Amino acid sequence: MASTQKLVLGALNVSYNFHFAGLLLITFVIASVCGKQYFQGLLMIPYGFVQHCDLFSGRWVYDNVSYPLYKGKQCSFMDDDFACEKFGRKDLDYQKWRSQPHDCDLPRFNAFALLKKLRGKKLVFVGDTLNRNQFMSMLCQIESSIPQSSSKLSHVRKGNSIIFKATEYNAAIEFYWAPLLVESNCDDMEIHHVQDCIVRIKAIEKHARYWTDADILVFDSFARWLGSKTTLLWGSFGSSDAIYKEVEMRLRVYEMALNTWSDWLENHIKRTKTKLFFMSLSPYHKNGEDWSMDTGGNCYNETEPILSEGHWGSLTDRGTMQIVESAIQKLETRGLKVMLVV
């Protein structure tokens, strides 16, 4: 079986710093389109830097000089779901933690270089709140460099999509809400916290037709698959002859959904045009015992990251990641490459 190509994003800490994670992810995404020399332009990295520095081996450091990369309260693209300061959070030190690689320094993000490399292209994030966070952070970083008042930036919500455009560069960056990739009763971007998840395990076209013309696709889908039971639907929502079946084989159902996703990619993606990525799950961070709290503790009132390198959390479900890796390996044998970002 072919080995899976990986980028290791999540090993630094259980709590994602989305300023940093989004920065590294998009660096490698666009580099895959524009070639290795792209690193020099986007982040102003000297020649040979990437070959001699492991950007993903490092530690969290507190930096109240150069961070935060943007101020959430001033970002016009920030959704209320993520607007902590807007709704009264006083402790903002969480914004000032950055990753420090062991053997080098990570240069600053360059929004103009990013948009230049995205000229005439379309980048689409697809999935749940993890990718929505990545998307939102990227837009805020761009806006902090190119103020919206310049009329060069715009964004609009349309159905399951949030569409950002930089008109001067003819560049589009989009987020598409599809938390299970296939169709489900969780597909409303605003009203999706349903108690009983119902999935049309073989149906994806309703969503996927909006991804066909993308130059770069970044997928993720994990959180909604962690429940103990899932209801499968054969037929259409609201149809009198639809068949519903509640199943407890969570990992098997997830595998079936990824098979539907894989089949769509194989039949619709232009291999010479579109670059594909799949983001890993966020490490579990609700069990306080993992960072030496008393039994029964959680992350409430925690204000600093977990500093132990490689932390995953005792309850992190790695079985789902193994299923993703297997699906990506099978796609590669069918001539389609997907980069797994772990």
UniProtKB/TrEMBL annotation:
<dbReference type="Pfam" id="PF13839">
    <property type="entry name" value="PC-Esterase"/>
</dbReference>
<feature type="domain" description="Trichome birefringence-like N-terminal">
    <location>
        <begin position="52"/>
        <end position="105"/>
    </location>
</feature>
<feature type="transmembrane region" description="Helical">
    <location>
        <begin position="16"/>
        <end position="35"/>
    </location>
</feature>
<dbReference type="GO" id="GO:0016020">
    <property type="term" value="C:membrane"/>
</dbReference>
<keyword id="KW-0472">Membrane</keyword>
<dbReference type="InterPro" id="IPR026057">
    <property type="entry name" value="TBL_C"/>
</dbReference>
<keyword id="KW-0735">Signal-anchor</keyword>
<dbReference type="GO" id="GO:0005794">
    <property type="term" value="C:Golgi apparatus"/>
</dbReference>
<feature type="domain" description="Trichome birefringence-like C-terminal">
    <location>
        <begin position="106"/>
        <end position="338"/>
    </location>
</feature>
<dbReference type="InterPro" id="IPR025846">
    <property type="entry name" value="TBL_N"/>
</dbReference>
<keyword id="KW-1133">Transmembrane helix</keyword>
<dbReference type="InterPro" id="IPR029962">
    <property type="entry name" value="TBL"/>
</dbReference>
<keyword id="KW-0812">Transmembrane</keyword>
<dbReference type="GO" id="GO:0016413">
    <property type="term" value="F:O-acetyltransferase activity"/>
</dbReference>
<comment type="similarity">
    <text>Belongs to the PC-esterase family. TBL subfamily.</text>
</comment>
<protein>
    <submittedName>
        <fullName>Trichome birefringence-like 34</fullName>
    </submittedName>
</protein>
<dbReference type="Pfam" id="PF14416">
    <property type="entry name" value="PMR5N"/>
</dbReference>
